[in-house]
Amino acid sequence: MRDLANWTACPAPQPVTIEGRYVRLEAYDRAAHLEALWHDAFGGLAINPLLKYFTQDDFSGIEDFGAWLSAVQTKSGWITEVFRDRATDKVVGMANYMRADAANGVVEVGGVAHGPAMARSALSTEAHYLMARHVFEDLGYRRYEWKCHSETQRSRTAALRLGFTFEGIFRQHMISKHANRDTAWYSIIDREWPPIRTAFETWLSPGNFDGEGHQRRRLEDIRAELSVKEQA
Prior knowledge:
Layout: E1 18-19, E2 23-27, H1 30-41, H2 47-50, H3 62-74, E3 79-85, E4 91-101, E5 106-114, H4 123-138, E6 143-149, H5 153-161, E7 165-176, E8 179-189, H6 193-204, H7 219-231
Parallel strand pairs: 5-6
Antiparallel strand pairs: 1-2, 2-3, 3-4, 4-5, 6-8, 7-8
Helix pairs in contact: 1-3, 4-6, 6-7
């Protein structure tokens, strides 16, 4: 754990553009991104089953979706980052920096929505690597959180694959879509970040993919191998 004797608050997350090898993170701009998110990334009303475990009601159209995005930014302080596939220049998904506690160096990644084009590709892994790297290395945060509905197994599996540690279930944490939500909590803390970063970079390297774009080694296996070497 770092020495906190002279700790000062971290900067609050701000909209940022970050270039990766496979994906570009772009700060959400309604004029530039709303239609691309709605139509290209999420397939219009197909967004509703995709966001089944989000807390807001289903959207009836793009105006509802746009109003929700504006509200979570202005009222809840979310920083929405849009994912753009560098190979196709298409918008493919989004995530948000949420509930920043700059005084204590804690921030959450949430409102994560991966469109179908992100499936079985390096896009989602790199997008989350870039978001985490920005939090720990550019902003100096101590703790990066991932929270999700306890029933969404896909999100829970993704958190573990990306290197987050499961911390438990907050029972009756909130009411979501007029029903109870128990929330699963995950985190990465600053001292865990260096080997997690190395695993991300090893997995994302071009040599880890064959000619058809299939991974040669799993991210979890790379991280486990690094842990064994560290303990040796």
